[in-house]
Amino acid sequence: MAQLEIEHLTKRFGSITAVHDLTLEVADGEFLVLLGPNGAGKTTTLRCVAGLEKPDAGHIKMEDQLVDGMSPAARNVAFVFQNYALYPRKTVFQNIAFPLEAHRYPREEIRQRVHQVADLLHITHLLDRRPAQLSGGEQQRVALGRALVRQARIYLMDEPLTNLDFKLRVEMRTEFKRLHEEFRYTLLYVTNDQTEAMALADRIAVLHRGHLQQVGSPGEVYDHPVNLFVATFIGFPRMNLLDCALSTDGPARLCAQDGAWAIPAPDRVREAVRRVGRERVILGIRPEDLTPAFEEQPASLAGRVFVIEPLGDRTIVDVQVGGVTVRVKAHAEIRVDVGQPIWLVPNLNRLHVFDPQTGRAL
Amino acid sequence: MAEIRIQNLVKIFPGNTRAVDDVSIHVADGEFLVLLGPSGCGKTTTLRCVAGLERQTSGDIYIGKRLVNAMPPADRDIAFVFQFYALYPHLSAYDNIAFPLKAARLPKAEVDQRVHQVAEMLKINHLLDRRPKRLSSGEQQRVALGRAIVRRPQVFLLDEPLTNMDASLRADMRVELKHLQQELGVTTLYVTHDQTEAMVMGQKVAVMDAGKLQQVGTPLEVYNHPATLFVAGFIGSPPMNILDVTLEAGPSLVNSDGAFRLPVDTALAEKCPPRTPLKMGIRSEDLHITSDPTAGDMPAEVYVVEPLGDETIYSLRFAGNHLMLAKAPPTLDLKVGDKVGVRFERSRLHIFDVATGKALR
Amino acid sequence: MSTSRFKVSYVAGQIVSWLLVALTLFFFLFPFYWMFLASIKQPGDVTSLPPRFIPFVQFKPTLENYAIVLSTSAMGSRQNTFPWALLNSILVGGTATVVAVILGTLTAYAFSRFRVKGEADLLFFILSTRMLPPVVVLIPIFLMFTDLGLPNTFVGITLLYITSGLPFVVWMMKGFFDEIPHEYEEAAMVDGYSRLEAVWKIVIPEAFPAMLATAVFVLIMAWNEFVFVTLLNKQSWGTVPPFLYQIIGYGRTEWSRMAAAAIIYITPIVVFTFAVRNHLLRGVTFGAVRR
Questions:
Q1: pTM for the predicted model, two decimal places
Q2: Among A39, A33, A48, which residue's Cα sits nearest to residue A161?
Q3: Domain check: are A152 and A10 in the same one?
Q4: What are B155-167's pLDDT values in tens digits?
């Protein structure tokens, strides 16, 4: 029995369709992340599940029960808002106790549960303060506490880490994952940060302009993206894309339009391209699947160094290949100058090809 | 010579807040220096003082060897790019870029030539007729840059111009900005709170915290040799692992309850005062996970697994219940609860004095 | 040194700013000072030349004027006295304010949170009522009121003030509600409350200061209103402004008594406004800054 089923959800705002025919399931105890750029429809989906928005079409089911007409209060879900929505005139204790008071829990039990959650999130020392006296990270934990203090069917989170500064964000990300490992909450989590999605999710659902692109484990969406959008949205630095054509006179090769480079095409690539009957395709290759070399190499992409991006633990080298910028991930200690010629050798087992017209992976 | 020299800059706001506390920075001619720090550290205030948008309480600012303390912004020959682009909404992109030139009463032909030259450089030629409303944020940012570049100022001052863009656009714009600055060779002072931005773009990075300057150096210098605990924790993704330790016989670094004991070499031990509280720092990429540990490797248990695609970040629990992050290639497929050995790259250990926060070298 | 040059021009700028502020304050406050003086002078001292500004030194102050004004035995019937008019002002102004603020707040909430069809048009329509000088509708109102039997009643004038104040309340409170994140109620709703409960427990406490600030404006409007109440409530339920006006007509005008009456009349408003002044400042900048 799935904890949450979204069936053919559609939601429009005026002339804009925010969510289009979305069907998605979240299993009991699963951490499912809704990932996509701003405006993809992720928050709208979450709000429909919570009952804060009314869908134009489709159904929401929780534990096999249709919840469509039910008010948010009746659905027994918990929601963490992006801006936390902490009640400014209440103390931290009162904020966390609020949902329990709404359900008329006895006073002693409320006290116990609030302290339990506060311990878990290391905010016991803040219980008497008001939200305005807390830092961003502390406020975030209080918002989380208010959600976790309930035994909800599903916990809905709308970009809870987005407003934190970088260091805190990384720390809280790890904590989130730990909490999930320990308590196995059913979580539907929204973010626009693909690193966060990859780190946290059991499964990622990628959304773009209201349409579901792909659902799969982090490994699946990273190694086997089904279209150009997923391939370029997931992974940092972004996957390199190159226009090329399959040439079959002689050994099968992928060649640049202007003949600037050519690399051998593995069998599976050759088959896939032939099956679809395309001449021109888009080659995708991730920066870590290229190796830089300073002498001419066969079956490589030749170019000149354009910009060097030192990240500390590695260096990204931006190379001009023909008219296109290709990024390669290199060791932090690499010594290279702008304008220097460089050859990039691709890992032939890690090539992706896409149909230029549909964007789908071949 | 268009260097920037900031000497002993102090800015105190009403209510006695020391926003900038005795900051001295030198930006060489043609250099790209990034002022990096968390919000409220004083970086934007410093920038605004250099621009003349803010009046410093004391201290001197030189732009190209001229003392500019009393000069209004218009006379300092600078261009300022704001966080929110600040484009004139009722003017087309062309008019926005031409604006400063028209204000300087340049002849029409020259204005036209320079605007097109800049548009060419920024690849926005086809957008010149549009109003800001019809431009994407990346395009708007380029128009804002164009407006700054077209004046050919001595100095560029940029205040977090990429902060409001989404991640992938930001990654592209970083590279473009860096390349642009390299081509133009204009002295640039750039403010950001994003350490990745600072590392990628800056020739030099100046780290600030609570109004004070922590360290100035090249990106690799501040990354590999952080001068203070703050710099060590602020730069690097994920943040550096920090542990409270003392030096004991062995020599080893030991945590407070003695459960965690890391043997170190004598060269390192000589740098540390004995029996004093210290902070040990090591980056996640300098912890190497081995499935068959040898002596000298620390035992640990996998606590959280974060697969990022091109690498995996493991949260490891060490003796004494200390958590540290370690990076590993995606092929190492560990699960929560697995027991592993961890080799600490001893040459990459950082030690900091607790009282001053300074690195012990 | 270069920095001291900075400081001199800064100090000079400060002096000029303070001078301008002092001048402006004097310009606005002097009439009130004059009125206060008039209220504690003997009738003869009020119009004497040269004018006398310092009590005890230049003239002998007295509280006689206040005593006379506040007594209920005066010209004509008992109803035609200052205390009676004051009571009417309080009842009419107070009721109108309370009703307008409550209704207006509820309306503003609905506009802020729900997608109302033709919202922009409706809001403009509401605001447009404040664009014309009220005098323009004086005659139509008078005729309508007469047909409905509303002149000289409590209900009539109060209703008029409510409908005058309502658009203002809606406009102010909507801007304010727009600034309160809707996530506050939504969090409460998800946590187990109905929308009504959520609004009562969470939003209203937040909105209360703004409601107070808005109430001040509505009250001032009703308190000072002159034209309509003079025309409509000649025989009963007249408020203070028409009362003061009619005093002028009786032979020689007793400026000192009028001044005393005026001081008494403005005092509640001044006190109330002063009490909520911080909320007022917030109120005036509602929705003006969009982040």
A1: 0.83
A2: A33
A3: yes
A4: 999 999 888 777 7
